[in-house]
Amino acid sequence: MVAELERRWADFGVIWSQSLQLRVVVSTLALSSSVVVVLGIVLQTQITDRLLTEKRTAARDLVVAGQRLVEDQIIQLNPVQVGVDAQINRALDSLTSPNSNLPRGAGSFEPVLWDGAAPGGPQPAGGTHVGDVPDDLRAEVERTGKLTQKIKTIARPGGDVTILFFGIPVRTQGRPLQLYLLFPLTPEEQTLNIVQSTLLVGGVVLLLLLAGITNLVIRQVVRPVRQAAEVAVRFADGNLDERMSVVGEDDVARLAESFNEMAASIQQQILQLEEFGQLQRRFTSDVSHELRTPLTTVRMAADVLHASREDLSDWMSRSTELMVDELDRFESLLGDLLEISRLDAGVADLSAEPVDPRGIVRQALDQVRAIAKDTGTPIEVYMPDEEVLVELDSRRVERILRNLLSNAVDHSEGRPVQVRLKTDEHAMSITVRDFGVGLRPGENELVFNRFWRADPSRNRRTGGTGLGLAIAREDANLHGGRLDAWGERGVGSCFRLTLPIIGGTTFTEHPLPVAPKQEQPEQELLHQRVALLRNGVVVEPELPTWQVSEARTEAER
After folding, report:
1. Can you give the pTM of this predicted structure?
2. What is the mean pLDDT of each run of 10 residues along the chain (557 residues)?
3. According to DSSP H, which parts of 74-83 are helical?
4. E-assigned strand segments in 254-382
5. CATH number of the domain where residue 208 is located
6. Which of 157, 111, 156, 153 is nearest to 134 (CA)?
7. Quick check: is 232 in a domain?
8. Three-state DSSP class for 308?
9. Which domain holds residue 549?
10. Cα-Cα end-to-end distance for the chain
């Protein structure tokens, strides 16, 4: 039960946060309900006070007139009580007689007479409800000798009855009497009940009318906003011709006109950018194609010169070698530009087939192993022993890994490069980790920008065109995968390639993390080794050889 209530409350919270119309209507109802309740209480209080005031005034006049009438009827009473009961009954009858001249504005009443000089104390002298008169009221009348009133609820056979009591002494020659008139407040209570019902029904009807009016008004305000949101969504999806309808000349119409002007301006700028991008891509493609013919001619001439460099002077031979190296780099740049042009144009082909990615990793390693050996960079490979089949384009994945490995070797500063491969049911991840200079905050996305370099003054051993990582990410996207980067200044960097096992499927988790948190304890262990070596304590080489050497170098400093 509690869980169901929590779920429903959560659903209401979602609806509440998403619907402006609901919030306005509910808020209006809440405020209006408070106002209606306060007004109802005030009105009921005023009506009650007014009814009681009128009742008291009319009852007081009736009591005073009744006192005079009773005094006139029993003024000749003697102490011997000869005919007293008959005279008292006649006086009570005269009070209730329709022929009496008593004011009738107070409504029905019940007269009671008490004899204050009866043997054994005050006794009822006449009336049908003598027992209903409160003792404290009789004591107050006897003590003050003045008109006294009191409201009290009395239990009667038909139910509880609220009565307005008035008591006043009656002056007689024979004995002291007290006259009490009992005014039932049943008519006033019925009137108040009718007033309460009317206020309740009227308040509910008023609230419903307010809710309907508020809902109608807010719909007129929200509808254009919703239309604007729907148009904006379709516009963002690429339907640049979407516009809002303009009706009238009010604020909503001006909003629609402003929105349409903004949409037209954005559409024009987007079209200009698309046209510029197409021109730029076409220019890049055309230039790349046009440069291939003269480049081929220059390459042939350079190859001839390079083949006969032994017959040339030393400086000519060196110039020939430099020219061949630059031509290689230029050819690589042209190839990358052509590939970028195909990717931008959306005409890149993906030749995916089930392949064991371990073989692709080995091929990429073979292409960079010579450079790694020249720089003294060890490469550590961690791959499963069993065969793994993944649907991928071998040429593109090998190019991705070659770019990642080349970058890792360039930035490792002689420290190891670690390559890991791991798969799960849905995806395969390959990480390339180095312990070099690392990346600054925010550079993990900038590295995939075209021609971006963290340190332009840094010399690259593997050459590079500045397009490798940009092409690598496009190749990963072409597979429906992801290429992510992580780095920390002075700690190193890690690039992770994740591809689906089956082409065209999706994945939600990566078999390998991009941030190698598991290596942090190893770094802390290195700092401990440095501290021990600085204190002259010899430790066992529990770290890799390169870290032990680094620890000793740090300690010597």
Report:
1. 0.47
2. 77 73 82 88 89 88 83 61 62 70 77 66 56 83 86 83 88 74 86 89 89 84 81 84 82 83 87 76 67 74 77 79 76 70 71 91 89 88 90 90 90 89 92 90 85 64 69 88 91 93 88 73 46 44 48 49
3. none
4. 353-355, 379-382
5. 3.30.450.20
6. 153
7. yes
8. coil
9. 526-556
10. 69
